[in-house]
Design a protein that fits this description.
Length: 145
C-alpha cells in the first residue's frame, strides 16, 4: 500500500512540475526591423544614392545618436528579378514608440531639416522622379533565450 501512495505522490509531483517546464519558451522577442523596398527609376541611381547618403543616412545617424534606432543599412539588390526592388533600406529599432513620441521625434527632425510636414511631404513626392516606393516589411527578431 505504501508503494502505491509513494508512486501516486511521485506521479502527481511530476504532473505538477510539467506546466512550469512547458511555459518556458526557447526564444524571446527581440528588436524590430523594417525593410523599405525601393525601385530606382532608370537613369536615377546616382541621384538617388546622392540623396540617400546626404539626407537619409544623415538622419538615420542622428536617430541612432538619439537612441531612437539601433542600426540602419542600405542594401543593393545585386540581381533583382522583375518586380523586385533595386535597394532595401533597413532600420533596426528596439520597439514601437508611442504616438506622442513619434510626434516629438518628427518635430525634432523637421526642425533639424528646416521643414514642416507639408514641405516634407512635397519633398517625398519630388523624389518620385528618382524612385518608386514598393512598400515595406516589418520583422521582429527572434532571440535565443
Amino acid at each position: 500500500m505504501k508503494s502505491w501512495i509513494i508512486g501516486a505522490a511521485m506521479l502527481a509531483s511530476a504532473f505538477a512540475a510539467q506546466p512550469a517546464l512547458a511555459q518556458e519558451s526557447s526564444y524571446k522577442l527581440g528588436p524590430m526591423w523594417t525593410a523599405a523596398r525601393i525601385d530606382v527609376e532608370d537613369g536615377q541611381y546616382e541621384n538617388y544614392m546622392d540623396w540617400l547618403n546626404k539626407v537619409w543616412v544623415d538622419n538615420q545617424a542622428f536617430a541612432k545618436s538619439q537612441g531612437w534606432i539601433l542600426d540602419y543599412h542600405v542594401l543593393d539588390s545585386v540581381n533583382p528579378r522583375d518586380g523586385e526592388p533595386d535597394l532595401i533600406l533597413i532600420t533596426r529599432f528596439a520597439d514601437f514608440p508611442s504616438v506622442a513620441e513619434i510626434d516629438r521625434r518628427n518635430a525634432i527632425i523637421n526642425k533639424r531639416m528646416s521643414q514642416d510636414d507639408h514641405s516634407a511631404d512635397a519633398a517625398s513626392g519630388q523624389r518620385n522622379k528618382m524612385r518608386r516606393q514598393m512598400g515595406s516589411v516589418l520583422y521582429r527578431e527572434i532571440l535565443k533565450r
